[in-house]
């Protein structure tokens, strides 16, 4: 088992994204300044914490619905690919680009490998054999 395929990693990243959703909803001054720097239109900003919150739920679903968690990591891979592109387009500071690049790599790897099966190789209830 790899750290990125472990179910607790999905839970940890879900908690991180839930916190990020709250920081985006408030918005925390650093987050607001970063959205300004990336030229995120005001009409789109309310959707950002919603998207992050939904993805947190998708990652947390790994214990019951590992397939949903894997689809969520695929969508997060696309999200962070777009984020990296936006950061590069606006020539954002390297310190702001690095986290997006790292998360792109993390979620891309998680998508490729998928979540580790439950202990003992038992599948989640209701999943196909």
Automatic annotation (TrEMBL):
Keyword field contains Signal: yes
InterPro entries for the chain: DoxX (IPR032808)
Compartment(s) where it occurs, according to its Swiss-Prot or TrEMBL record: Membrane
Segments passing through the bilayer: 67-87, 94-112
UniProt keyword annotation of Membrane present: yes
Annotated keywords: Membrane, Signal, Transmembrane, Transmembrane helix
Topological relation to the membrane, as annotated: Multi-pass membrane protein
Top-rank lineage group of the source organism: Bacteria
Signal peptide: 1-23
Name of this protein: DoxX family protein
Record lineage: Bacteria, Bacillati, Actinomycetota, Actinomycetes, Mycobacteriales
